[in-house]
Write a structure and sequence with these properties.
The complex is a heterodimer.
Chain A (H helix, E strand, L loop, with lengths): L1 H28 L4 H6 L5 H10 L6 H13 L13 H36 L4 H15 L2 H15 L22 H7 L3 H38 L2 H9 L3 H30 L2 H6 L5 H10 L3 H29 L1 H5 L1
Helix pairs in contact in A: 1-14, 5-6, 5-9, 5-11, 5-14, 6-9, 7-9, 8-9, 9-11, 10-11, 11-14, 13-14
Chain B lengths: L1 H27 L4 H7 L2 E6 L14 H10 L4 E3 L6 E3 L2 E6 L5 E6 L13 H12 L12 H7 L15 E8 L2 E6 L6 H4 L10 H6 L5 E3 L4 E3 L14 E7 L3 E6 L12 E6 L3 H9 L5 E2 L7 H6 L3 E4 L4 E7 L9 H10 L2 H8 L5 E2 L22 H11 L5 E8 L9 H14 L3 E8 H10 L5 E7 L5 H9 L11 H12 L3 H18 L2 E6 L3 E4 L3 E2 L15 E2 L1
Parallel strand pairs in B: 1-12, 1-13, 17-18, 17-19
Antiparallel strand pairs in B: 2-3, 4-5, 5-7, 6-7, 8-9, 10-11, 11-12, 13-21, 14-21, 15-19, 15-20, 16-20, 22-23
Helix pairs in contact in B: 10-12, 15-16, 16-17
The chains are: A mainly alpha, B alpha+beta.
Chain lengths: 334, 554
């Protein structure tokens, strides 16, 4: 097991190296540079040259790359050109928001998707089954920003039940020791602040969680159907095991493998993106931040941010792989 | 199966409970605008991003300046809604005969947020601080406005940079500061109204390391906390808290020398997405925001929100390279002017509030001349002029940019198509070239490759030199050689210290420019702010010098 984990972690190195080269080159292949965003039409050739020199963009590409790698191995991602704050600080300020949002969205997707998929499989061919299939297809098909706008329009603007943007009411004053607003509210003994944070999470998490929800429903349904038809299940039922026991001991546990895969992949995706949802709800996470950095050609942010997200994604998948060992003893012995 | 069904029902019930309590919570937690005014003094404004720094000397972007404007004050400022210079921290000022020494009489009884006194020493401390910027601090990306107005430092890092405008500052007594310049200049006075020349508390500047800037041009590290947590000024608001990416909170400064702010707590909430800002206003989560998308003007107004117009402070123009035939021929240039239907373009391609431009600066700026030659839309006249010019088959290299949208030019391609059609209808042959805005297009324009080109300018500060001086005071490849009288007039106006004489000189210059016609200005656009119904007292300014201290909620 340990060897397995260590091997996977070591694999990170070539992955990140390759990724760093790709990102570095792609970002410099974009037309224009940070000077556009900084200068507007003050961009006389002299000013542009000055800005490019100030940011080391006039040096040969390989020189820029080596300097960038030299810094990166020391975990120094440089300074944002737009905000002039260290990239690591910017990421640190924003990542908790994305984590909170992704976690809530996954919670929603898992809490609704798995039971729904299970029921659909067990009542194969019934209206529940058809409804859940149609629903999941719809969930996958609707662009997430359309859904986000719809939810916002109905629940926040027309009905006024929930807020339209942000992570908390600007007039609420509370400390944020961890950066996870719900947790912070609870830790600092301020339940109304925690509740405020929850309210701000509901709509974005619902919008964001729809796609994992849809996938999970379908995968659960498929997995449960497949396992439910296995011989050992029929044997267990024939032996007289009650339905709940069969479900718990045989069906669900065996169906969990593909479900865990989907959960892992979807979590990784949510953590590394949620650009559209974060933008529509002004949620201040890392997805919208990265998108803005591309528009302003903020090279250090783009480079550092992508590497960071890649690490996150790989680590999440590592956790999923390890969880296989827990779920399926056969994996451990290999 | 029974278990699962029960679980399902419970889950459904929980969900219902959640939504139900959210509904109750939503009603009474003060999300609506009315609740805010009942609070008796909190105003939330939706900005587009956090300030980069609250140290005015280091910033030039709108959002940073907006914050600095509330916390700090300058020696002089602009009249509300206009560009005329009026007293700020200085009650009066007087240049000497030569125009190189300006004596400022300072206001009495002013204190900084930290309790220290505002006086002439503090003023000189600030000016000397900027003059003595070193290394990274001198970079135009850091101290853009100091570089623009004063152009040089005590020890220039860049050998190309010449001697600056500022020479020294003397505190002759507590209430009198004399600023000495190296050459006569009158355009520096309106420049002093810029928030970048705010007077900060010397004690705080030192204590919080405002000048602790390490690193290099590419990696500036602002070690001190003056600009991020301790921006101590004399303004009607002081900083309460700055939480990046969440909000910036300011509270009323009770010892302010002037009329105290009406609103006690001012909160800026950054919302990057334009539609999200509008929706936050509609939902009552913010009470105002800036740079409203023209598509929202109608809907917001019908929904009962106030749309305040900021007087235009930009100009969109068709530049002409007078070195490139046939534009070297004055009659051809006039023909172009008569061929273009500016009113139609403004009506069709620009939002409400945009106006046709008659000269290269906006009407709100002093020196604007009402009687410049105007070149009415007249295709027949254009054809006549072409015939008179002696140029057969006049062909124009018309350049336009792609990948860009500017306030004075939201859709350059649309402008190009309209103008191309106009020119061809008058008998011109148009040879179009498009290029990405940066760097290709701007490069081509600035090196004189373009013949006719679409460009524009948003003013930095309320001085005509910032518009027509920037374009025409010195010879530039983009325009080609101009009538020498124009250079002379603009140089004379730049240093004329008598206000009325200066205004007259700029009016004269505008007439000369529009006679020579180095280009055709065609539009000024007016950005708008949106506010909730009960908000009053906000005065939009062409140069964005806007004070939240004057707002009140009904």
């Amino acid at each position: 097991m340990l060897k397995f984990v260590v091997r996977r972690v070591l694999l990170l190195v070539p992955i990140l190296l390759g990724l760093s080269i790709l990102v570095f080159l792609f970002v410099r292949a974009l037309p224009g540079g940070p000077e556009t965003a900084l200068l507007g039409e003050n961009a006389t050739p002299e000013r542009v040259a000055q800005v490019r020199e100030a940011y080391g963009l006039d040096r040969p590409v390989h020189e820029q790359y080596f300097q960038y790698m030299e810094r990166t191995v020391q975990l120094d991602f440089g300074t944002s050109i737009q905000s002039r704050r260290p990239v690591t600080e910017e990421i640190r300020n924003r990542f908790p928001a994305t984590v909170e949002l992704a976690a809530t969205a996954m919670l929603f997707a898992v809490a609704v998707g798995i039971p729904l998929g299970f029921v659909a499989a067990r009542r194969y061919g019934s209206w529940v089954d058809h409804l859940s299939t149609a629903g999941s297809l719809l969930g996958i098909a609707i662009p997430v920003f359309v859904l986000a706008f719809l939810l916002k329009y109905v629940f926040a603007i027309k009905l006024g039940w929930l807020p339209t943007q942000g992570r908390e009411d600007p007039r609420v004053f509370t400390d944020h020791p961890t950066g996870f607003y719900v947790l912070d509210g609870l830790i600092t003994g301020n339940p109304s602040a925690a509740w405020d944070a929850v309210k701000h999470l509901i709509l974005p998490a619902a919008a964001l969680g729809t796609i994992p929800l849809a996938f999970l429903t379908r995968i659960t349904r498929a997995a449960v159907l497949e396992v439910g038809n296995e011989d050992y299940v029929r044997t267990a039922e024939a032996k007289g095991m009650t339905r709940p026991v069969v479900t718990r001991r045989h069906i669900l546990r065996n169906a969990m493998l593909p479900i865990a895969t989907v959960i892992g992949l979807q979590t990784g995706l949510l953590l590394s993106g949620a650009v559209l949802t974060e933008t529509v709800f002004a949620f201040g996470g890392i997805g919208s931040f990265m998108a803005q950095a591309v528009f302003t050609r903020d090279f250090p942010v783009i480079q550092g941010g992508i590497l960071f997200l890649a690490v996150v994604f790989v680590l999440v998948n590592l956790v999923v792989d390890i969880s296989y060992g827990v779920l399926d003893p056969r994996v451990r012995t290999r | 199966m029974r278990n699962l069904r029960r679980r399902g029902v419970v889950a459904l019930g929980l969900a219902g409970l959640l939504v139900g309590t959210a509904a109750c919570g939503g009603g009474d937690d003060g999300d609506t605008g009315e609740a805010a005014s009942e609070d008796g003094g909190t105003f939330v404004f939706g900005t587009s991003t956090d300030p980069v720094s609250m140290d005015g000397a280091y910033v030039s972007d709108g959002e940073s300046l907006r914050v600095v404007r509330q916390l700090f004050e300058t020696l002089v400022t602009t009249e509300a809604g206009g560009t005329e210079i009026v007293p700020g921290l200085a009650e009066s000022w007087e240049p000497d005969e030569a125009g190189t020494s300006w004596t400022f009489q300072l206001r009495d009884g002013v204190t900084f947020h930290d309790g220290t006194d505002f006086n002439a020493e503090a003023v000189c401390f600030n000016f000397d601080r900027w003059y003595n910027f070193e290394g990274v601090q001198q970079s135009p990306s850091v101290s853009y406005y100091y570089n623009t107005v004063f152009t040089g430092f005590a020890n220039n890092e860049d050998p190309e940079q010449g001697v600056g405008l500022y020479e020294s500052c003397e505190a002759t007594d507590e209430g009198t500061a004399v600023i000495n310049l190296t050459t006569p200049s009158a355009s520096f006075l309106p420049g002093l109204a810029l928030a970048s020349f705010s007077i900060a508390s010397p004690t705080a500047l030192e204590e919080f390391g405002a000048d602790d800037v390490t690193g290099t041009g590419e990696e500036p590290r602002f070690e001190g906390t003056f600009g991020t947590q301790n921006p101590v000024g004399t303004g009607p608001y002081q900083l309460e808290a700055f939480e990046p990416n969440n909000r910036l909170v300011m509270t009323r400064f009770e010892d302010y020398w002037g009329e105290p702010a009406n609103i006690e707590t001012l909160i800026f909430r950054p919302i990057a997405d334009g539609p999200a800002r509008r929706q936050a206003l509609e939902a009552g989560e913010i009470q105002g925001y800036d740079l409203v998308d023209p598509a929202d003007f109608g809907p917001l107004e019908s929904a009962g929100f106030q749309l305040l117009e900021r007087p235009p402070f930009n100009v969109g123009y068709l530049g002409m390279n007078t070195a490139q035939p046939p534009l070297d021929n004055p009659q051809i240039r006039q023909a172009v002017a008569h061929a273009i239907n500016r009113q139609a373009a403004v009506d069709a391609l620009y939002p409400e509030g945009a106006e046709v431009a008659t000269q290269f600066m906006p009407p709100s700026l002093f020196g604007y001349a009402d009687d410049v030659p105007t070149y009415e839309y007249d295709v027949a006249r254009a054809r006549e002029l072409i015939a008179e010019s002696g140029v057969t088959n006049p062909t124009i290299n018309f350049w336009y940019p792609t990948n860009v949208s500017r306030p004075y030019m939201p859709n350059p391609e649309a402008n190009f198509q309209a103008f191309q059609a106009d020119l061809e209808a008058a008998g011109f042959t148009v040879n179009p070239t498009s290029a990405p805005w940066n760097p290709d297009y701007l490069d081509a324009v600035q090196t004189g490759q373009a013949g006719l080109y679409l460009l524009g300018w948003t003013g930095d500060f309320g001085d005509p030199d910032n518009f027509i001086g920037t374009f025409f005071r010195t010879s530039q490849q983009a325009w080609g050689p101009l009538d020498p009288a124009i250079y002379e007039q603009l140089e004379a106006a730049r240093i004329e210290t008598d206000e009325d004489a200066r205004t007259a000189l700029y009016e004269e210059a505008n007439r000369s420019i529009m006679e020579f016609l180095p280009g055709l200005p065609y539009v000024h656009t007016a950005p708008r702010l949106a506010f909730a119904e009960g908000v009053s007292g906000y005065e939009p300014s062409p140069v964005s010098i806007e004070e939240f201290a004057k707002i009140s909620l009904d």
